[in-house]
Amino acid sequence: MSKTSPGNFFEDFRLGQLIQHATPRTITAGDVALYTALYGPRFAVQSSDEFARAIGYPRAPVDDLLVFHVVFGKTVPDVSLNAVANLGYAECRFLKPVYPGDTLSASSEVIGLKENSNRKTGIVYVRSRGRNQHRQDVLEYVRWVMVRKRDEAAPAPAEQVPQLSDAVEAATLGGACPILNTAAYDYALAGAPYRLHDYKPGERIDHIDGMTVEEAEHQLATRLYQNTARVHFNLFSEAQGRFGKRLIYGGHAISLARALSFNGLANAFQVAAINGGRHVAPLFAGATVFAWSQVVARAELPGREDVGALRLRTFATTDRTCADFPGPTGQDYDPAVILDLDYWALIPR
Amino acid sequence: MSKTSPGNFFEDFRLGQLIQHATPRTITAGDVALYTALYGPRFAVQSSDEFARAIGYPRAPVDDLLVFHVVFGKTVPDVSLNAVANLGYAECRFLKPVYPGDTLSASSEVIGLKENSNRKTGIVYVRSRGRNQHRQDVLEYVRWVMVRKRDEAAPAPAEQVPQLSDAVEAATLGGACPILNTAAYDYALAGAPYRLHDYKPGERIDHIDGMTVEEAEHQLATRLYQNTARVHFNLFSEAQGRFGKRLIYGGHAISLARALSFNGLANAFQVAAINGGRHVAPLFAGATVFAWSQVVARAELPGREDVGALRLRTFATTDRTCADFPGPTGQDYDPAVILDLDYWALIPR
Amino acid sequence: MSKTSPGNFFEDFRLGQLIQHATPRTITAGDVALYTALYGPRFAVQSSDEFARAIGYPRAPVDDLLVFHVVFGKTVPDVSLNAVANLGYAECRFLKPVYPGDTLSASSEVIGLKENSNRKTGIVYVRSRGRNQHRQDVLEYVRWVMVRKRDEAAPAPAEQVPQLSDAVEAATLGGACPILNTAAYDYALAGAPYRLHDYKPGERIDHIDGMTVEEAEHQLATRLYQNTARVHFNLFSEAQGRFGKRLIYGGHAISLARALSFNGLANAFQVAAINGGRHVAPLFAGATVFAWSQVVARAELPGREDVGALRLRTFATTDRTCADFPGPTGQDYDPAVILDLDYWALIPR
Description:
3 copies of one chain form a homotrimer.
Chain A: E1 18-20, E2 25-26, H1 29-39, H2 44-47, H3 49-55, H4 64-79, E3 83-94, E4 103-115, E5 121-131, E6 137-148, H5 187-190, E7 204-206, E8 211-212, H6 215-224, H7 235-238, H8 250-260, E9 270-279, E10 288-300, E11 307-318, E12 328-329, E13 332-333, E14 337-348
């Protein structure tokens, strides 16, 4: 029998199955520096130990999206190595802060299965969890992917599609953010004066700047996350594939859009939850990514005087500026849109 | 009102204005590793904790140019986002050593303003300072840039051009270098036997090696420095711009030239001051950078038996070796020259 | 006299000569993160401090090949700057574990010299050693390179070719691996259930995945190792050279093949020795690297109940999958093969 794993196919998953993913990972200051070099984030809390300490963190926490990517990467060899498409995310919550030196591992539970009518593929729903060395969950999220069957004739499991929330409830946010002394939050150092109540639902913000993506960059990023999806790395096979070229990890687009969003959202320092996300179109090297955000909602958090939450919908485009806020157009999207991300960010009150 | 900052235009600056720049930054071993990967420096003091400790540092200090780039990067969103050209540096001094774990922030004072006769642009002179978490200045320098006006009709401020030194006085050098036990300085490990008095004013040194620059490399570098100048990252806009392509951050050329200069200046381990620097021509990806240096002067430092200073003029070229020392030719430069950097380096006596 | 070193030529070497190489290097978590980003290794022992501690390491050790590359890099300016070809490795043993914070330096002894009949080049054999800050050897290996003569007329040294072992004796392996508590080794976290006795001599394993190499990636890697061989960095000179382009450092191919080999060898967590290695063909950017391994032998180690050793022969190819195990064909190799590496890896019993 082969010692090489080809990954799971649709018929390999069972409802309720719990998968412990391989390769625990200690996050270090080296990972943080690479994350900065890859995306150029400028949020003061994650950039400066001093800034973080002044407001009540023991030191600068690791960027939430770096945590997400590391946990996500671990799930790939078991969940999505034979995926045709990554269909969506939901119910993603950041539960505990992560600091350099923490070690993350990941597990997934199969919470839904649905064969497609062509019997060649099926949809797998998993709830994945990232856990630290103290066995505390730091992150959980639901993801669903369309996975190939090994054998079209394999019997289909009973269809089960999980009920998923449209949005994480604001009242459950904030676990990854200690109670902060926001009196010590220096708005000049943070880069802008705007707080929770300066943002109005419906408000639209063009983040202006654009960032061109290179092959070496997304490969470095995706390997840093120990994500093994071959579409990101293997030009030889992808040249013969659907796109004729390497497809960039969707999370790379999310991190680029988030880093660009500093210009306009400088104090929205923590991603507290991801309500949903859709990779509207693929991203390829050579494209320049732009982003804009709409404020969807504003929430106070029970028992917290320090921070509140903004529900944001951030759109990323390629090779198109966002001054006129390109987004959904009826059932479809402006053709330049590649990402539609709905998330909650914490911001001082 | 928009929450997005478009950066300052010429008419936004006021003489004497003090700007606190955003995003303090804790420098880590991760940044140091990236700096090594980006340029390949081989100076033993910055490369080895053991070597540094043996001669009297608490541990290996952070490369001076990494400190410079991080401080410089912070000034960009406020000072040069609307710059047409980075015209020069002067009076740059490294004042305290920086170690991994230190947090840097930056501020700038507007020390000069001069509208250009076309009324479309003006020159802004700033003295920028980098400061550590103990509120000690680690770096200061003057920079002047040509900045666009938002509105040609905006009234010009009173013209004020600061008097700047041609060179930093040798007697003021050395703040960033503790008193060293140079008896413990191992010249074999350092890579060459040459000390202060082995170099003669007028001597010219070809650093021989060449380094080709890739787009991914300078983008990683410039994001690592949280420098947001769009010309470095945004192919979509630059394709329509002056050069038709991304322009590489000038500091990237400085760091390449400095790293190449190890071959010939192995013991000139610290950049103590930058007297002046001129980006003679732009640098683009695909070019191979070479460098040579001329010894301009040699100085002993008051009260210091351990180290002295070499005043060096380092020229970088693209796609041209430096065996015949291409440099200024009358009013102009050899067409391959991209950098003319005048700096002081410390070296054991 | 020039202060720039052009490197040693064949006639500069003397039998028995001991060379202390320049630039000691403190290995940090930053280097480890970059190594992960460059190759995507997933061996749990090197990835997780927690996993490593559970089985008896003080923390996660540095990847053996990162140690190799750093030591190798130091030897380049003295040994192979004027090399025409890197001919082989032998008797490479990893002797002590290396952890972030350790400082490595390197020295080489000339153990063989043989002028070629054309009198233009000669073969230099060196035994190189990497040493930590406690003056303990962490690595030793023999390398032989074909080096140009400066002057064809220079007299040839007496010919001396060292007797080298075909393979490191299994009984001498394991110095870089403390005695482990393998009862605490978690095979689910490690990624596969296979131990020493699950592998059979003769068994062949296709590692399936492919990795495309970019210029920026191998340049970052090779500078990280402070390797100064110009063929890797200098497009201007290489465009006029043998291949018309930059040649990738051979060690980059070794690390790619090793990282790919996780899929099939997940528990073969430490490279204990390299018996020999041949860069069968050059590697250039744009190529996609694949790999497969053959189990050559299996060995128990004297006095060790925890781990044994697998002797593996790993072949890397470019732009060709390895499902049919392309390798040697008589005197030659399949034209896609670029690497033939013979090494010992430790694996739990």
